[in-house]
Write a structure and sequence with these properties.
The structure holds three protein chains of three kinds. Chain A is of the alpha+beta class. Chain A is 29% helix and 41% strand. Helices cover 39% and strands 19% of the residues of chain B. Classes of the chains: A alpha+beta, B alpha/beta, C alpha+beta. Chains in contact: A-B, A-C, B-C. The interface between A and B is large, with 39 and 54 residues.
Amino acid sequence: MCLGVPGKVTEVYDRQGTPMAKVDFGGITKEVCVAYVPDIVVGEYAIVHVGFAITKLDEKSALETLSLFEQMGVLQQELNAEG
Amino acid sequence: MKYLDEFHDPALARTLLDDLHRITTRPWAIMEVCGGQTHSIIRYGIDQLIPEEIEMIHGPGCPVCVTPLEVIDKALAIAARDDVTFCSFGDMLRVPGSEADLFRIKSGGGDVRIVYSPLDALRIAQETPERQVVFFGIGFETTAPANAMAVHEAKRLGVENFSMLVSHVLVPPAISAIMDSPVTRVQGFLAAGHVCSVMGYWEYDPLVDKYRVPIVVTGFEPLDVLDGIRRTITQLEAGRAELENAYPRAVNYEGNKPAQAMLADVFEVTDRAWRGIGVIPQSGWKLSEAYRDFDAEARFDVGDIEVQESAVCRSGEVLQGLIKPNECEAFGTLCTPRNPLGATMVSSEGACAAYYQYRRLDDPKVHR
Amino acid sequence: MTDTPPNLEAWTCPLPLRDYPTIVLGHGGGGKLSSELIEHLFLPAFANPTLAGLGDSAIVDVGGTRVAFSTDSFVVQPLFFPGGNIGELAVNGTVNDIAMSGAQPMVMSVGFILEEGLPLDRLGVIAESTGAAARAAGVELVTGDTKVVDQGHGDGVYLNTSGFGIVPEGVAIGPDRALPGDVVIVSGDIGVHGIAIMSVREGIEFGTVVESDTMPLNGLVAAMLGASRDLHALRDPTRGGLAATLNEIARSSEVGVEYEERLLPVPEAVASACGFLGLDPIHVANEGKLVAMVPAAVVDDVLAAMLAHPAGSGATVIGRVVEDHPGVVVARTAIGGSRIVDTQIGQQLPRIC
C-alpha cells in the first residue's frame, strides 16, 4: 500500500510556514514535505511517500542489512565447499 | 537509485533463497499484508522461486481494493458536480463504483485531476478560490499523515474551498479480523513496512500474544521480501511466535512521533466497512470534530447512495486470503483488468490484477 | 447507405465498448483500449486487406513499386516539453512510421488545427521546429492545411502529418515477419520521452535533466539495411512503450518473445522517476528509438552498423524470439524469476500503492 522510495535531501526550506525540502532520487528532484522528520539535514536520506518524508533512512542500518546477507552467502559457500 | 538497487542484487537474492530452501521442511501459509509486497512478489517472480511448501496468501493491504463501494459512489457523485475540481491519486481512477468510475466521470465533463501528493490538491484550491476542490483521502496509516497535513494546512491557511473525502483503514484490526475468522489458514504475517515507519510496530505485540503467530515487519524490495519470508519461516520451523523487524533501516519500535501527533489531532477512530469483507469495528479513521468543516461528506449532500456490487465478484474472499484469484470463476473471463468486476482486479496492488498482469505460463520451459 | 446504428451484439466477446459508451482518455493511451477501439470500431468500418496488416505504415503497390504510406496525429500536452515541442514530434513520428517499413520518407503533409487565441509567436516556434525537423530527416513538407477552432476546443494546437516513401527491392519488413531464433535489439535508452513529458505534467511535475528523445530514425534504418537486407521486424515503441510493441509483434507474427530485464537500457533518471511514481519503464513512451527483430546470423553486422550511427549509439541486445508461448512476451526478472509482460489497459497512472 505504500510506495515509498529513498531520496537524498539537497536543500531544506520553508513554504508558507511548512518545512519542505528538495530531494534527489538519482537524476530526479522533487519538492517534499519534511514536517515529519523535523531534524533532517542536507545530505541525509528519507523514505518519501506521496510527497512526504515519512521517516529518515538509517544508512548504517541499510549497510548492516546488506552486510548480513553477504556474510550469509560467504558462510553458505564455505559450508558447500566442506560438504 | 541508492539504497534501492542494492536490495535487488541477484546474488544476495540467491543467498536468501538458498537459506530458505535449506530451512523449509513443511508446508506453511503466510500472509503478506501490504499490496506493495504482493506487487513485488508477483513482479519479481518471488512466488515461483520460494520453496513449494510455502504458500503466500495475499492480504487486504490494498486501500484501493478495500475502500467501501459506498465511498466510491460518493466520490463519483461529488466529482460529477459542476462546481467541483476532484483530485485523486492515480490508483483510484479506474476503481469501479456501482455504475461508473472516475475516468467515466472525467469523460462526461467532470473536472477530475490526478495528483501525486495531497498538498498538490491544496495548492490547486489556493489557486482557484472560486472552485470547490475535493481530495480523495484514502489509504492506510502510511498515507494518513500526508492527508492529515493537507487538512491541517487548509485550516491553518484558511483555504475554505478545500475539503477531503476521507476513507482511511488500519492494519492491526484487519489482522485481528483475519485471525478471528474460523476458516483462516494464516500461520504468520509479513507486516507492512511503511505503515510501521509511521506507526512503529508496538501495536503488533498484543497480536503476537493473542494469536501466537510470528509477525515480521518487512520492506518491499526483493531482498526485503525474501528476508521477511525467511525470518517468518525460521520462526515457524522452530515453533516460535515473535515480533521481529526485518526493515530496520526504515522502521523503529516507536514509529514517527510527529506524524502520530498530527494523526491524533486530525483523525479519530471509527468503524469502517471494508469492501468485500464487511464492517470491522474501530478499523478506520475519519476527520476529528475540530476538522469536520473540511469533511467533503458533510459539505456535499450526495443524497442516498444505493450500492450495487457485482453478483459474481468474489473480491472479499480473495482479500481475506480464502481463495486465490484464479479460483474465482470470473477470473480472466468475465473479469479482467480491462473489464474489472471488483477493486482487486483494478488496482495494480490488487491480488487479482497482480495475478493477471504477471500471470504465469504453465510452460515449464519458462522457469529456467 | 442507411443510418443504422452499429450492432454491438455482432462484435466479439468481450465487448469493451459497452463499458465505455463514450471515448475516454485511455482510448488514446496506446494500450489495450486503443487497440480495441481500432479493432472493434474502425477496422470493421473500413475493412480492406491493406489496413488489416496494422503495421506502422501501409504498403501499397503502385504500378509495381511498393510505397509505404503513413499518418499520425499529435495531441500532446504540454506543447513545449524538455527536449522539443509538438512540431518535431509530428515530423519524426511519421518519418519513423515510414522508416519502420524500410522505406526512406520522401514527402510529407502537415495539417494544423489551431485554437482561437493561440499566440502567434508560439505557433511560429512550432512552425520553425516542424520545418527544421523535416530538413534534419531529409524529407520535404509539400502540402498542408490549417483550420481554427473555437477557444476551449483545441488545447492550443493539434497536428497531423502524413507521408510516404518507397520500400527498396528485396526488403520485406513487418510486424508479422519475426521468426523464432531472431534476436531482439533496442536502439538505445528506453522510457525517456514519457518521463520528459511527465516531468512537466500538472500535479506530477518534478525536476529532471531528462529530455525527450524525439529524433528521425530513417538514417539509422538505412545504415541497418546497409549491413543486411534481411531484417524481419522493425517498430518504434511510442505510446504504450516497449511492452506494447513487443506484444504487437509477438501477436502479429504468432511467436513468443523473451527478454532479460537486466539487459534493458534504462537510464538512471528514468528508473528513478518510475520508482517514485510507481511506473514501469517498459510501458513508458519513446520517440526516437526502435526495436528490431533480426536473424541471429546477421546480428553482429547489424549491431555494429547501429552503434556506428548517432541514432543507434546505445543499441543493445535484450532477448530472443522463440517458438514457445506464441503471442506472449515473457521477461526474466532481475532475481531470476519470470513474468508475463502485457500491454497496459489505458494510460499508465502514477500510483501510491
